[in-house]
Structures are given as C-alpha cells and as structure tokens.
Amino acid sequence: MCIAYLLMARKNSFLWLLLLSLICTLEYIVYMGAKPAGDFSASAIHIDMLQQVFGSSRASISLVRSYKRSFNGFVAKLTEEEMQQMKGMDGVVSIFPNEKKQLHTRGVLDSGIWPESDSFDDEGFGPPPSKWIGTCQGFSNFTCNNKIIGAKYYRSSGQFRQEDFQSPRDSEGHGTHTASTAAGGLVSMASLMGFGLGTARGGVPSARIAVYKICWSDGCFGADILAAFDDAIADGIQLPLELFHGNEKTDTNISFCCNDGPVLASITNFSPWSLSVAASTIDRDFFTKVQLGDSNVFEGVSINTFELNDMYPLIYGGDARILQQVLVEQI
Is the same domain home to 137 and 172? Predict the structure, then answer.
C-alpha cells in the first residue's frame, strides 16, 4: 500500500512525496561495528550515508540518533526498500528493526528506580568521584543523592502511557529491584509480609548507582538501550565494548539469559561471543498447611500472608481469575 501511495505522490508536489515516504517508514538500527580511531563526526558520516540512499531532502529528519561514544551506528527511519539498499553499503555490518524487548535483569539499565527506598540511603557516602561526569535529570518527583549519583531516561518515540512516569522514577518496580540487588545498602528487619525476616543488602552495598531508564510499561526498545549504553560510557561507567561486537582477545562475556522457561527456544539474549546465564533458586522453602473438611491436613509450598479462621469451599485455580474479575465488576 505504501508503494502505491508513493507512486501516486510522485504526480503531485514534492511535499506530498516527503510526507508519504515518512508515513511508510520504520525505525531501523544500522550497526557499523567498532568506533573508528581518532576524532570523527558521527552525525555527518551517517547523514552522508542517508543522502546516498534518498538524497538530501530527507536525510537530516530521517536520522533519529547517532551512536559515537562506544561503537559506530545510528537509528534512522527507512522504508523496506531503503533498508535493503543500505544493507549493501560499505561499513554496514547489520541492520535490524528497532523492536521492543521484554524486560530482563539489566542492572541499572532498566525501568528506573524509586529513590526513597531505604536501599538507596546515602548516609556515610561522600560526594561523587571526580571522574563522574553524568547528570541527574531532576524533576519535581525525583532527586538524586550521594548513593544515586546519576539518572536519565530514554524514549525515542516520545510517546508515554498514562501509567508511566516521564522521569527516571520507576513505575514498574523491576528497576528498583535489580538496582537494590546489585548495589543496595543494608536494610535491617526486611521481610515479605513477615517471611524471610532479616537484613537485606545488595551485592556491593558500598557502590554508587547511576540509573538509565530504558524500560517502560510496554517494554524496552533497542534504540533506547543502545543510547543508554552510549551515554553510560561517556558518563564514566566502565562497560565492556565486547557486549556490542565481540572480543578479539577471545575472553568470555557473561550476560543474563531470560525470565522465561524451561521451554525450548526461550533464550532472548545471546550472541556467539557471550555466555548466557539463567537465574538460580533460593536456599529455602516456604510451606503452608491446608486442612480439609474431613480433618486431613496437607502441606505444600506456598506463601500465605493471612490467617484463615473458618472453612472455605475449594475451587479450581483456573477459575480464581474469573471470580476476581466478577467481584471487581460488582464493586
């Protein structure tokens, strides 16, 4: 349909041709491998490549972002035909759509952070190190401290859902969870509704945290992920460049695997030069007893945070969601 519209547009004005060509485009990530040695103007090079594909009229407005700090590449709005043409250009390693990724554990490149959590208290921390040049995108609902020393958010589409905070603040909880797991401070008397009572702490409690919010209620997009990596390295975060284009020294890179499984083909984060690792289990079990009407007692693995002081009918677990929806509608 887009091709038909474009053929029609050629009979009309240049502006119609420009408008319709933009309507028929998708965002593609053009990966060009390692960053060239020495100084280079990434944007100028990338615009020049786009001009070779469709002239100077659309080049600047089609370029969404240039990556220049840790690797060479860019994001551009292209039609299917233009993408195929660009694949054959010198220097292009690969081209892939700016697809939405499902949320995984990414350390602090995640869904943001809840700065008021006790895990991120900055008591005992001095000023940020002098080598740190990152910034805190401060808003009325978000502030950094000497523990959370930087925070940014990324949304290349510029479109936000009602449930999302347009700031580094976490509306999902996942980013807060992973940040506290990696570098959360000591929090005493922590528990889940009384279960597992003890002291919670991250892997390195003395570490500072820089937050790069790339994940939203509808997922995480590739263009935003790469933009955050690019900025993180410029801010002073040490990230292995082999994450992008392999390691010539044959060292092994270890990365997270996925949140799904165990089923075939459930891995979503893999490459020939990396080792993908899945999550492990905890060293404890939580048991709950259920007494039936005939006085028989059965014990199973479950977490029950409230006391049952009466007898209740048994239902099929698959019907519980339906029953809950009915109750919500009645309210």
Answer: yes
Number of domains in the chain: 3
Same structural domain, 85 and 199: no
Categorize the per-residue pLDDT at 118 as very low, low, confident or very high, splitting at 50, 70 and 90. very high
Residues of the domain holding 321: 287-330
**CA–CA separation, 105 vs 165, rounded Å?**
20
Both 234 and 122 in one domain: the answer is yes
Distances 310 to 196, 292, 300 between C-alpha atoms, Å: 26, 11, 19
| pLDDT grade for 244, boundaries at 50, 70 and 90 | low
Gap between the Cα atoms of 166 and 209, Å rounded: 20
How sure is the predictor about 187, in pLDDT bands with cuts at 50, 70 and 90?
very high
CATH number of 91's domain: 3.30.70.80
pLDDT per position as a tens digit, 17-32: 555 555 678 899 999 9
Domain CATH number, residue 127 = 3.40.50.200
Q: Each residue of 138-156: pLDDT tens digit? A: 777 789 999 999 999 999 8
pTM tops 0.70: no
Residue 277 counted as domain residue: no
Handedness of CA 81, 87, 91, 94 (dihedral sign): positive
